[in-house]
Write a structure and sequence with these properties.
Chains A, B, C: It comes from Catharus ustulatus (Russet-backed thrush). Chains A, B, C: This is Rh family C glycoprotein. Chains A, B, C: InterPro entries: Ammonium/urea_transptr, NH4_transpt_AmtB-like_dom, RhesusRHD. Chains A, B, C: One of its GO terms (biological process) is ammonium homeostasis. The structure is a homotrimer. By secondary structure, chain A is mainly alpha-helical. The first copy, chain A, has one domain: Ammonium transporter AmtB like domains (Ammonium transporter fold). Chain A is about 65% helix and about 0% strand. Chain A contains 18 helices and 3 strands. Chain A has a 3-stranded mixed sheet with strand order 1-3-2. Chain A starts with a helix and ends in an 8-residue tail after the last helix. Chains A and B meet through helix 2, strand 1, helix 3, helix 4 and helix 5 of A and helix 4, helix 9, helix 10, helix 13 and helix 16 of B.
């Protein structure tokens, strides 16, 4: 009763009819649209046996499933456990972190299968799907999970679903422009996933600026065990990132190379993150926020170039720089963004995704511009950049220019899209919580009554948090 | 001392000689039986190089290992981390959940290799094993993990080992009847694993009915962090379920299709679960019990049909329905089963496995009955349902009837087997705890003395649990 | 302030300039060395398309990536999540366990790529790397993670980095002697990883003996939730160990066989561990320390022989014995080592890695010596032991002798290397903590101020730990 009164004070967060309605109507829409449009691609269809002979594949193992399924599962873990648990660092928002991430991603992958399908797998009025579509849907949702990080703890589940609907749509448009119109390479998504997702999320959180957020400041920190839960997320993201960046690369050497480059970049990133985390703190102690996040910047920053001939030492350099930039960001930029630009970035996605994503786009542009037939071999050169058909006349330096254009387009889409979606989310109908109830699971979740309670202060709002 | 007195009051839970004796004797029996019967199959034997040429396989990569090992590892994670951590939601039974699941599964896979081996891989007096046997052993043990969910917190480790011994045996007989005698398809085990496992477990817990269980009611709930541990189990089950349902499907399109169908079904299930979880609670708040469990019903419910041409939209429909049924089950059926039918179902396996398992069997029967050569292609049709040899005359509608018969047989085996095994487990020699000590790790485990103790009330039995 | 004073009493643990300096200089050195030496191997290079035809590979899927990448990812999880979380059992050292393991492994894999590369992948002045190198680098670092277990909680991050630098170097030398000079088989690393790593770590901790360590005795235990975090580590190690032992075995039957043998050994090990854990405790209760550790001994003990024709029942026997030896070790040997030999082994690596590693080496020697052409087939025999070229005249019994020699060499390298490195780490310049501050994250980490604090006693050093 105390709880109810306390939460009900400022805003109506009652979800009982609104959330079910949105979930059920949207799922019904998915069923109808899947019924009209989605079918199995050749390699997943029961006609495969006949198709296979036509495709001149000698063995069942040449089914794309065996090239991509293990990577798909790794990516899947990154989206649901990786992002989900990374955000459990907040002391009283673990249910929301894992649970809402679960909800938005489960909706998002369905909508992404449709949106991306219309753009990329549409044939004779049907979207034909296979394992690569599943990976791409997970990728697309990854950009939503990133944006979620900026508004974590401050939004209702309905707002998150609305954001997912729009962001997946915009992601697919942006991806189409980059991959199909600009003919840009971005297998690990430095531009399409990270730059777009992060600046989109930052714009949204700017629009949703809450001047009184310091009222829930005591809940914005972590406790000992919540930091360990977050490390589960960190490590799964870190370990599986080589799979992420290589998941949709060309079969053979490109997948192999992407994994190696990413492995190297991430390893270097850990060392520079630790170095700067200790160096930038007066007592010289390591900060779990940096270890949980900045160690991953190396994966973001080779997203575009991992499948290119970046080389292992190139990866070490990129990883080293991105770890430094990201850690410095946590120490100096995040407070600045909040106090001066009114950008309240709960998880610091500006440091983990935005800046490293830009680095990734730039490194990709440079690596592409520097490509030579000598380094790639004649066949490898064609294959790596797909300089066939209308793109036959492209040179590496032109490709580099288009890559750079891809960054700009992603940024514009993110700012414009984020502004519009932020405006929609600002409408007072979505059931977000009052400032003093942010970062608090009790608003949308049944929370168990712990004897030695983590949620103690919800029942005793008068008691100060840190003695 | 306090602890000892408290626990020793009603029942003798002293394990020191009984548990070691059972473990060591049974392991010795495994060694003898493996020594007599189990050998490497052709693809794992050092003679492979010669066999390979005879089998007309052109490359090492056509070894079944490469088709199935990644899926095997995903299934393995589901059994040990998935089921193990899913059950850690209880505030004081985390060690028992993870630890006893570990124990029974480690024994069960050995016994399953033998039992399933005799039925399916027996040649010239030897059981020849390969990676597919490992997957099937894990599957078989999965049904024991399910049954464990019903009796979680109320049984001794010896009871669990005894149940595993019998349940694996009965599972293998039931599986043999379904797959070999009825020629039923059930790659993801809606019938053999879920329906059988769940109704077996429910029957056992009915026989073991404890009228005074409300004495440990304060320990049947969760605390904040135990709910997050349980989400680790949930997410790994959810993410890897596509691997579960496709792990033993035919190479190529069937595996590919199973994964896609399961992915779709699970995504839809999350949305309907969230919708009903909020709708069925007066305050409209989400309940972690539903999110932890009902979101998985979509995987269970396409277990039989995932490798068939269920189609993505068909999967969305099945997943949506099963999420609703499962959530409604948690809210209305579980209390009813307990109060009226005296079925005390700790984890609610009736909602997560029993009902969705039945749905899965029925959907499988319908999908099979509706199969046409047009949809599957001539070759695909034969391959999908194995209508060769003595089964050449089977039509889809006959196959549908046999599929339905498979459900009935699984149910009968579960009820009869569960009743017998329940009767055996009721004998007063197995060392189960008294009602007031259920759901309490301290009975069978050395528990660390936390300062701010989760196990506080064990040392202070007089203090009430919820202030 | 209280905290600072308390920690600063005895020793200078200020890391602010030392740690960054080491991290940044060493990472710079890695970049230079990678720039000079490391390039992509043929299968990861963009020239692959041309190479492939020369290598007579018909399909992209014959790229080694597809044979090894799924196993690589499993091994990767074992190193970072497996070892990292296994060590989180300490109540106040979770950040250090996961975080320092992350740091040393991230540095170690880079240095291992170089060291192992010079020995094994050096061609025309360049180290050519592919997925197998990544696995081997992870393996090498595994031996450092093992040694870390012995000194957990007692060393500074700089000491760990210094140890990593030397241990990776010595590991690579020892591995070269065993694999190339003695022509020994050790795919799962019973000798090179476990025996070497464990005795190295034990020697180091002996040299670093701290007579006053009982001053931090209250922090050497676990709390309820830290034991559950540790089980995450245990289970991932246990589940993925079949991938570990098969990751670099020959394609085809050898990989397949390694996985099966390891699966069997681990399953048996769980039962004998549980049996002895209960039997050796007066109250007959299970001890989480044993379940967390001794259940893994079965994987260590078949490390050498898993790819040989050990047979499933042979694996059960080896697994059973190693579970017993390891559990007995925790109960009797660890206290003995500490009180009599002054070997303070925080995680009990003597029981989990040293003794089972020796068993593994011996079982490998016996299995090799007992090999016959009858059991392996003529081709399989040659392939399994590589009896070609200068080794054409080797017989199984001679091979067995060389295998045994491999154990002795590994032990000598471990003792000698450990003594030297221990001496270096004893220098008073590395910033390790005073005895009363061991096993305490607050020394090197920013620790959140929990209300119901796990780190309570750091702020209140006067209050006793266990009331």
């Amino acid at each position: 009763m105390e709880r109810q009164r306390h939460q009900g004070m400022a805003k109506n967060t009652y979800m009982r009819w609104r959330l079910p309605l949105v979930c059920l109507l949207w799922e019904a829409a998915m069923i109808v649209l899947f019924g009209v449009f989605v079918r199995f691609g050749a390699e997943a269809d029961a006609h495969w046996e006949e198709e296979r002979r036509e495709m001149n594949l000698t063995s069942d193992i040449e089914n794309d499933f065996y090239f991509r399924y293990p990577s798909f599962q790794d990516v899947h873990v990154m989206i649901f456990v990786g992002f989900g648990f990374l955000m459990t660092f907040l002391k009283r928002y673990g249910f929301g972190a894992v649970g809402f991430n679960f909800l938005l991603a489960a909706f998002g992958i369905q909508w992404a299968l449709l949106m991306q399908g219309w753009f990329h797998s549409f044939k004779d009025g049907k979207i034909l799907i296979g394992v690569e579509n599943l990976i791409n849907a997970d990728f697309c949702v990854g950009s939503v999970c990133i944006a979620f990080g900026a508004i974590l703890g401050k939004t209702s589940p309905i707002q998150l679903l609305v954001m997912t609907l729009f962001q997946v749509t915009l992601f697919s448009v942006n991806e189409y422009i980059l991959l199909n119109l600009l003919h840009v390479k971005d297998a690990g998504g430095s531009m399409t996933i990270h730059t777009f997702g992060a600046y989109f999320g930052l714009t949204v959180t700017r629009i949703l600026y809450r001047p009184n957020l310091e009222q829930s400041k005591d809940k914005q920190g972590s406790v000992y065990h919540s930091d360990l839960f977050a490390m589960i997320g960190t490590l799964y993201l870190w370990m599986y990132w080589p799979s992420f960046n290589s998941a949709i690369s060309d079969h053979g050497d490109a997948q192999h190379r992407s994994a190696i480059n990413t492995y190297c970049s991430l390893a270097a990133c850990v060392l520079t993150t630790m170095a700067f985390s200790s160096m930038l703190q007066k007592k010289g102690k390591l900060d779990m926020v940096h270890i949980q996040n900045a160690t991953l910047a190396g994966g973001v920053a080779v997203g575009t170039s991992a499948e290119m001939m970046l080389t292992p030492y190139g990866s070490l350099i990129v990883g080293s720089i991105s770890g430094i930039v990201s850690t410095v960001g946590y120490v100096y930029f995040t407070p600045f963004l909040e106090s001066r630009l009114h950008i309240q970035d709960t998880c610091g996605i500006h440091n983990l995704h935005a800046m490293p994503g830009l680095i990734g786009g730039i490194v990709g542009a440079i690596t592409a511009a520097a490509a030579t037939e000598d380094v790639y071999g004649k066949e490898g050169f064609m294959k790596a950049f797909d300089f066939t058909g209308v793109y036959q006349t492209r040179t590496p330096s032109i490709q580099g220019g288009f890559q750079a254009a891809g960054i700009v387009v992603s940024l514009l889409m993110a700012f414009a899209g984020g502004a519009i979606v932020g405006g929609i989310l600002k409408l007072p109908i979505w059931g977000d919580a009052a400032a003093e109830n942010c970062f608090e699971d009790g608003v949308y979740w049944e929370v168990p009554e712990d004897e030695e309670s983590d949620v103690y202060h919800m029942h005793n709002p008068d008691k100060p948090a840190s003695p």
